[in-house]
Amino acid sequence: MAVDYAAQILEGSHRAAARLISWLEDEDERAYECMKKLYPHTGRAYVLGITGSPGAGKSTLTNGLAREIRKSGLKVGIVAVDPSSPFTGGALLGDRVRMSELAEDPDIYIRSMATRGFLGGMAKAAADVVKVLDALGKDVVLIETVGVGQDEVDIVGVADTTCVVLVPGLGDAIQSMKAGIMEIADVFVINKADRPGADMLCAETCSRIEMDAHLRERGWLAPVKKTVAVEAEGIDELWLAIEDHRKFLLESGRFYQNRRERISREALRMIHAELFRVVREQLEKSGRLEAAVEKLMNKELDPYTLMRETVTEWLSSSRCERRHDEDTQS
Amino acid sequence: MAVDYAAQILEGSHRAAARLISWLEDEDERAYECMKKLYPHTGRAYVLGITGSPGAGKSTLTNGLAREIRKSGLKVGIVAVDPSSPFTGGALLGDRVRMSELAEDPDIYIRSMATRGFLGGMAKAAADVVKVLDALGKDVVLIETVGVGQDEVDIVGVADTTCVVLVPGLGDAIQSMKAGIMEIADVFVINKADRPGADMLCAETCSRIEMDAHLRERGWLAPVKKTVAVEAEGIDELWLAIEDHRKFLLESGRFYQNRRERISREALRMIHAELFRVVREQLEKSGRLEAAVEKLMNKELDPYTLMRETVTEWLSSSRCERRHDEDTQS
Q1: pLDDT at B324
Q2: Smallest Cα–Cα separation from A173: which of A192, A157, A151, A154?
Q3: Nearest alpha carbon to residue B47 among B155, B157, B140, B148
Q4: Domain spanning B43-253: CATH 3.40.1350.10
Q5: Sheet with B224-226, edge to edge strand ranges
Q6: Cys bridge to A77: A69, A141, B18, B42, which one at CB 3.0-4.6 A?
Q7: Kindly report the CA angle at A321 between A318 and A322, in degrees rounded to 5?
Q8: Is the ipTM of this complex over 0.85?
Q9: Would you call B330 helix, strand, or coil by DSSP?
Q10: HSE (CB half, 13 Å, CA atoms) of A95?
Q11: pLDDT for B27-50, tens place per residue?
C-alpha cells in the first residue's frame, strides 16, 4: 500500500517533507498528487524573505532570526536558495554546514535548494517548497536568497515581508539602491554594524527611504535595523520590526491583496511552465523541432517567424474548439 | 515613409543598431519585423563570452581584447550584460563608463544591456543583440557577463568560445570549479596575475583540468592564460589561445554542431517567451485568471489542478484541429 506522505506532512513529519521536496526537484509525478492534497492546508505560515549580496551574512542572520522566533514558541522553516553559481556555489555550501547547528531543534526544518534541476525556474520551486513547510505546520518560513539577478528577486516575491541585508564597505550602497531594491525592501538590515561605516550607511539608507515619494505612498517606510548577527546583537529588535510590518499589512488590507497577487503570479507561472513542457515535448517527439532547426541553419526560415507560427498554431487550434462545436451541431 | 532600419544596419549604421536594440528592449513590434530581415545575414560573427565573478576585472579585459582584436583589422562588437542586481548595479555602471574610452573607434560598437525589461529572459535578449551586431558587420562579438546564477550561465551559451576569468584571492577557486564552471570554460584567464597567489591558482586550475575525464573526452583541454588586464599584459597570448580554440572547433566539426545546438536552444527559448506572452494575455483578458484566483484564495481549487486542467484544455483543442478536419471532410 502506498504511503500517504501528504497525511504524514500534515502531522509534521520532516522525513515526509524531505521526500516530497525531492520529488519536486525530480519533477516526479507523485509530487503533483501530494501538493494537491496539501494545498488546502497552506497559507497559514508567515513568509519572511531575507536577501542581500554574497558576504552580507545572511545565513548567520537567518539562524539568529530562527532562534529568536523559536523563543515565542513558533515553529520555523528555513528555505535556503543556492543560486548554483559556478562562482559562489562553494561559499554557500559552507553556509549550509553552519546552519546545521540549528538542526537539533525538532521544531526547525531547514532545506537548502540548488536551483539547477528545477524546470520552471527558481521562483516556482521556492513557492512549492514554502507550501510544503507551511503544510508541515511551520508558523514562520524564512527564505534566504542571494539577491543577484531577476530570478532571485522573483523568489522574494513569495515572501510577506522582505528584509534586505546591507553591510558597510560592500560597494556604493546608495547607487545600488537605485536599481530596484527600494521596492522590494520592507525592512532594511545593516548587518556587521560593528564595522566602520555602519552609521554612515544607516543614515544614507534612512534618508534615501524618506526621500522616496513612491514609498511614502505605499504607507510603509521601511525601518533600518542594525545587527551584528555573529554576536546575536539586534536580532530581537529586527524581529519586532518584522512583526510591525506584519501588523501594518494586516491592518491596511495589504496582506490579503499581496497574497492574492502572489497566487495570481504563481498560477500564471505554473501554467506557463506546464504548457512549455508539453509544447517542447511535442516539438521534439514529432521531429518538428529538428526540421525547423535544419531550416534555421540554412536560413530558409527565421526564428521569429517560427516562434509566431508555432504559437499561433496553438492559439488557432484553441479557437477551433468552437468551430468544431458549431460544425457538429449543424 | 518608414525608414528601413534593417538595410541601414546591414550597411553598418550604429545609430540604426541602437534603435533596433531599444525596440528589442521595449518589445516593440517593429523589432520583430527588423530581426526577421536581418536573420539571413547573421551567423558570420565569431562570438566570444567572457564571464567571471564581480571584481574579476572583466570589463578591463574585454576592453583589452577589443583593442587586441582591432590590431588585425577585425571589427568588434561588445555586449555588456548587467544583471541589474540591486546590489551590483552601481559597480557595473562604473564599468560602462570605463568602457567609453573605446567608443571613439568607429569599428567598435558597445552596448550595455540592463536585464530588467527584457521579457523572455536575458539569454534570449543577449542572443538577439548578438544577432544585431553580427548583421551590423562585426567580425567578433564579445559578450561580457557576471557569472552568477543560471540565467547568466545561459547567456554564455550564445558564445562560440567562453573565457572564464578567475582572480587570485577571490574565494576557493577549486571549490567553485566543482559547480559547473569546468563545462562552460574553453579558456581560463587568471587575471590580476601580478597578485600573490596567481601561480598557485594557475597550477590548481591546470591540474583540475587535467584530472577531468569528461573534459579529455571533449578533445579540448582549456588552456590557462595569465593576464594583468590593467597593464594590457598577456592579452595577445589570450587572443592566440582563443584563436586556437576557434581552429579546434572548425577542424573537429564542433563549430557546426555547437551552432546547431544553440539555434535549437534559441528557438525553444523564443517559443517559451512568446507562449507566456500569449497565455498571459488570454487568461487575463478573458477574466479566467481572475476567476481562478478567487477559487484558489478560497481553497476551492488548487493551483496544480488549475495548471493541468488549463493545459489539458489547450491540448485537447489542439487535437480537435484534426477532428475538425475529419468532420468537414466526411
Answers
A1: 46
A2: A192
A3: B140
A4: no
A5: B108-114, B76-82, B140-146, B46-52, B161-166, B187-190, B224-226
A6: A141
A7: 115
A8: no
A9: coil
A10: 28
A11: 788 999 999 999 999 999 999 999
Element (H, E) at A77: strand A76-82
SS3 A33: helix
Residue B304 and residue A39: Cβ atoms within 8 Å?
yes
CB contact under 8 A, A268 and B275: no
The residue to which cell 578567475 is assigned: B166
Task: Tell me the pLDDT band of A103, cut-offs 50, 70 and 90.
Answer: low
pLDDT for the residue numbered B205: 87
Please tell me which of the candidates A180, A276, A321 has its beta carbon nearest to residue B84. Answer: A180
Least confident of A78-82, A120-124, A273-277, B314-318: B314-318
Identify the pLDDT of residue B281: 87
Backbone angles phi, psi at B79, to 5 degrees: -115, 115
Mutate to test the interface with B, among A87, A174, A296 (most CBs of B within 10 A): A87
Q: In whole angstroms, give the CA distance from residue A286 to residue A278.
A: 12
CB atoms within 10 A of CB A329: 6
Q: How far is CA B24 from CA A33, B16, B148, in A?
A: 41, 12, 24
* Cα separation, A253 vs A251, whole angstroms: 6
Residue with cell 477574466: B287
Q: Structural domain boundaries of chain A?
A: 41-253, 267-329
Residue A185's pLDDT is what?
A: 87
- Which one of A29, A172, A271 makes the best mutation probe of the B interface by having the most chain B beta carbons within 10 Å? A271
Task: Give the Cα separation of A119 and B330 in Å (integer).
Answer: 43
187-246 of B, contacting A, C-beta below 8 A: none
- What is the helix (H) or strand (E) element at residue B187, kind and residue range? strand B187-190
Whether the CB of A89 is below 8 Å from some CB of chain B: the reply is yes
Name the residue among A292, A305, A327 with its Cβ closest to that of B327.
A327
| Number of helices (H), then strands (E), in chain B | 15, 7
Q: Is B292 on the interface with A (CB under 8 A)?
A: yes
Adjacent-strand bridge partners of B224: B188
Q: Which of A296, A198, A189 shows the shortest CA–CA distance to B267?
A: A296
Is A272 within 8 Å of B280 when comparing Cβ atoms? yes
CATH code: domain A41-253 is 3.40.50.300
Taking only the tens place, the pLDDT of each residue in A162-172 is: 998 888 876 54
A217: closest CA among A182, A265, A250, A166? A182
pLDDT at position A42, please?
A: 95
On whether the CB atoms of residues B145 and B184 are closer than 8 A, the answer is no
Smallest CA-to-CA distance from B246 within B186, B176, B169 is with B186
The shortest CB-CB distance from B293 to any of A115, A264, A316 is to: A264
How many C-beta atoms lie closer than 10 Å to residue A40's C-beta? 13
Distance from the Cα of A71 to chain B's closest Cα (Å) equals 31
Low pLDDT (below 70) residues in chain B: 1, 54, 82-101, 103, 114-121, 146-153, 170-181, 213, 215, 315-330
Q: Collect all residues of chain B within an 8 Å Cβ-Cβ radius of residue A266.
A: 303
Question: Over the stretch A6-62, which tens digit does the pLDDT of each residue have?
Answer: 999 999 999 999 999 989 888 888 999 999 999 999 999 999 999 887 678 888 899
- Cβ distance B89 to A266 less than 8 Å, yes or no, reads no
Cβ pair B303:A267 closer than 8 A: yes
